[in-house]
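Write out the 3D structure for:
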Amino acid sequence: KEARSGTILGAAGAAGTAAAAAGGNAQIGSTAGVSAPTGAGSHADPRSQLSLPGSEQLEASAAGVHALCCYLSLAASQQEVTRPEDAMPSLVRILQVVSKYGQALEPQLAAHLQLCPPRVWQAITPQLFAQLHHPQPGVRRLVLQLLQLVGAAAPFAVLYTALAEAQIAEHSGAPLLPELQALLQGLDAGRPRLMADVRRLMTEAERLTVTWEERWHALLCELEVDVARRCVTLRAEAERVAGGAVGVGVPGGERGGVEGASEGSGQKRSRGGMEQKRAIIARKAKLKLPMSDSSAESAPASSSAGDTKCRLGAEQRQAILASRYATLMLPIVLVLEKNVKANAACEPETPAEAAFMSEVLPRLSSAIAAFKNPPPDAMHHLATRPQVCWEPLKGILRMLSAALERHTLMDLAHVSPGLATLKHTRVPMPGLASAEGGGFTEKWASEEGEGPADPEGPAASGGTVTIAGVFPTLAALPTKTRPKRLELLGSDGLKYVFLLKGRDDLRMDERLMQVLQLSNSLLRADKHASRLNLGVRHYSVTPLGDRVGLIQWVHNTVSIYALFRNWQANMRARHAAMAAAAAAATPLQASPAGAAGAAAPPPQTHALAPAVSAAAAGGRRGVSSTTVGHPQQQQQQQ
């Protein structure tokens, strides 16, 4: 690049690399002054001696940023930077200097950064938004300047990320950053319809990520495991009460105290026994159990645990189990009631939500009430089968599971009318700037023929492909999180397929795609790897919030989950074949004469062993077995 770009480009690149390296290695702290030199024999921690850099280091850092900006400007003008990731190393070095010394060099850096072409900064847009949370206001102002330059040159490069950051702040309840608010106001100026359409796209995408049926299905599946664990505890409690191990439901230590009171005498009995008896009386009073007069007063010391167990009838044991059931299931009931109240407070905005509100929500409310206060017939099974109380909610869980299995193809007008009516917008196609050329789109042909769906075409948006419509069918993948396959129609007449994924932070996936892009840049720079055409296939990731985003659909691929399911099916078929072969061979080995109905010969005839083996082998080969008789006849048959 230096040889082709001339002497100025070479000097700028060399000076920028050396100066930025010198500035990047400088130490910075919170106090003024030049950092004190550290001797070779000093054992102090270098991190404890950080201070503001000296004037020479500041000048070197500013010169490095200026040289790198000139380098990127010349490289972009001479077609040296053809891909965004080619400039990523230089951009990251500039951002590092801005992050460290932006507060002290704000005027100089603000002038130098304007020399760099704005579109070059698209490669590290996520890193720029991350620096908006920098503690120093000077650094935040410099980053805002860069984002405003990029937004003015290419609004689609910062549009989705800016609105996603604003949505994340709104969901978390944190105040919106002033810099982010200024950026959004600049983007909204002159583009009110664009911002409204992008917000509607993000809102409807979040709605489709997890529908009301899917959310309740996941919640009931999670709670069912917890209920089963609590039922085991309740069953153990029922066995303990029914067996009389603790008398009236007091802990084992209390039972030991009662027995000690009956066996001891004198002061031991008056101290230990009476204290335990008072605890039993208090427990009975709390449970509202009948107490005899001898228990209310000073009962004789000869009262044993067996007598206490005899005074517990069926009603008392049932009352203890009912109280224990209410205590164990109270957290489950609170979670269910909280979600029902939150769901009932939401106003249905789609036909699917209205149907859920009128059909499923009343059944959920009645099932939760039955689970909280089980009917008498279910209360009788608390000791043996406490999971019976979960049956009403389990029935709703089965209903939701069957509905989700049936509705793998959803009508977009039924689940998201707002997205179905999104037509002829100026919303840029997500991820198109960061996707590779081949394999991202496929030609879409309508009944009228092929051609742009937007009459004005991409030229109306300055050559940027926009969303002209959404296909009416939405496919849900049969996996745990149920991501959706969303098809968008571009203004160029092509179909763009995405995977709408939720319940996961896709910002980490976006960073990983940047690593793959940088790896491809390094591979292209190496002559041996370039000759072999080595590269890593990546795809676009567009976060639309903290738990939702769009992932480019890669065609002609097989998921690892599909491979695992195929392996499972093959293993089941193999085990079934082995079991069938073993079942077919077992009768022949046990009784070879059973096929003809003859009685088995006595065990003394050892000459039958070869015949049994031959019959078993013949059965495995599909040959019909013959009647086994005298050894001489067996030899003739062989």
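DSSP finds 26 helices and eight strands in the chain.
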